[in-house]
Amino acid sequence: MEVVILPDGDAVADHAARLVAELVRSRPDAVLGVATGSSPVGIYRRLAAAVDAGELSFARAAAFALDEYAGLPPEDPHSYAAYIAGHVTGPLGLDPARVHVPDGNAADLAAAGAAYEAAIAGAGGVDLQILGIGANGHIGFNEPSSSFASRTRVKALTRQTREDNARFFGSLADVPTHCLTQGLGTIMDARRIVLVAQGSHKAAAVAGAAEGPVTAMCPASVLQFHPDAVLVVDEAAAAQLTLTDYYRTAYEADHAKRGTHGFPPQ
Ligand code: GLP
């Protein structure tokens, strides 16, 4: 696992956006895994600006969202379908026919999960998965105790996650209790993982993800088994890591000196 510690959220978004842009430039029909929440917003803004400037095109790319609230139709402004439409599909100029969000409003959620797995496989799998991380270490909506072998399925949300996400809704009571989320096994099938985290409220989760132990109590710790996972974090989110000197030295050697950091890529 590569851990990149950068000064602030802007630098985190710059670096992660660069990784996405480099992929799409080398492979215009790339399949992206797209996260929701506040963490990746800066990535999407930078990519959209590059598209607007004519420096990048997602016209041939495809995207799969990680998760959706159960019981929310795509028209609901709180749905992740609405988030993806507003932050990803439109701004990046993706073909809506190639953008997929789990159908959390399906009558048969188990069947919808299986159909989502089939759609990802049918697209050839995810090339690069963008991830945020919950304060309790969840990725997607895979809450603590999730199976490392799990596939897209219904999950109950923890109270902490519902409280954390209540800021997007009117009140805690309005936050759905369940979701349809890619499993940890689904996420681990992505060929590359780029996880971004900003802020001190993510520090414990980031330390658990990067430095373990590997445990279902911190679902993101499964990424230690991934052959190409990058954690891009700001100083506040890095505060509980122990190997920070090592990560900084490795980053300087691998990126900063060669100028392969920041956004946009040259
Ligand atoms: C949400 C989403 C995750 C997201 C995480 C952190 O509930 N299901 O995909 O990464 O929690 O959210 P935020 O980036 O807003 O802190």
From TrEMBL:
UniProt-listed Enzyme Commission number(s): 3.5.99.6
Entry keyword Nucleotide-binding: no
CDD domains for the chain: GlcN6P_deaminase (cd01399)
Keywords from the named record: Carbohydrate metabolism, Hydrolase
Annotated Gene Ontology cellular component terms: cytoplasm
Gene Ontology MF annotations: glucosamine-6-phosphate deaminase activity; identical protein binding
Record field: catalytic activity: alpha-D-glucosamine 6-phosphate + H2O = beta-D-fructose 6-phosphate + NH4(+)
Pathway of action: Amino-sugar metabolism; N-acetylneuraminate degradation; D-fructose 6-phosphate from N-acetylneuraminate: step 5/5
Active site: 67, 136, 138, 143
Gene Ontology biological-process annotations: carbohydrate metabolic process; glucosamine catabolic process; N-acetylglucosamine catabolic process; N-acetylneuraminate catabolic process
UniProt family annotation: Belongs to the glucosamine/galactosamine-6-phosphate isomerase family. NagB subfamily.
Functional description taken from the UniProt entry: Catalyzes the reversible isomerization-deamination of glucosamine 6-phosphate (GlcN6P) to form fructose 6-phosphate (Fru6P) and ammonium ion.
Matching HAMAP family: GlcN6P_deamin
NCBIfam families noted in UniProt: nagB (TIGR00502), PRK00443.1-4 (NF001684)
Protein name from the UniProt record: Glucosamine-6-phosphate deaminase
Biological source species: Arthrobacter saudimassiliensis
Origin organism lineage: Bacteria, Bacillati, Actinomycetota, Actinomycetes, Micrococcales
Gene: nagB_2
